[in-house]
Amino acid sequence: MATPEEIMKHHEPDPDEDPWVRGRPAPAPVEVVPYDPRWPARYEALAAAIREALGPAALDVEHMGSTAVPGLAAKPVIDIDLTVADPAREEDYVGPLEAIGYVLALREPSWHQHRALRLEAPAANLHVFGPDCPENIRHRMFRDWLRANPADRDLYARAKQSAAVGAMQVMAYNKRKEATLREIYERMFRAAGFL
């Protein structure tokens, strides 16, 4: 089981690791749009297809990220966390996911063996982690915190909208909203008794 210290640890990319499987994506404007009430149904359809493709290899499939928080502005991309027994065993899941349109985009062995696959339409990011992964737990905590705390949901929405202005890379967008994200994390971790 992940410890509070592991869950609270902010990810610092390994400077010696090139995570891009097919090269860094071309610059494109980052778009944050108002909440779309169709996002949960879009997630359900994607999750059903993932479960059907993977069978028992899919230990858990969860809607994460901003599209999973009612009322929160977001990039119109469904974020999904997939739990598998061992993310390093790509042969257990990548082929079946590619067969339904996903493309392996990121491989980060230094970060909980994280893998990310992308789907073009409908746009989705599929994050693959192992059981009891601290990052997956953190994602779930943050989603649930924003669902239960409208003030922080709205604060985060404003940070996202501001960060997207002129951003041409998701990494730059993420960096711009990092201070607000960490402020909310601190409140969340304190409420959970971690601090």
TrEMBL record:
Pfam family, one: GrpB
SUPFAM superfamilies reported for this sequence: Nucleotidyltransferase (SSF81301)
Comp. bias (Basic and acidic residues): 1-13
Listed Gene3D superfamilies: Beta Polymerase, domain 2
Annotated stretches, region: Disordered: 1-24
Domain of life: Bacteria
Protein name (database record): GrpB family protein
UniProt source species: Achromobacter pulmonis
Lineage, broadest ranks: Bacteria, Pseudomonadati, Pseudomonadota, Betaproteobacteria, Burkholderiales
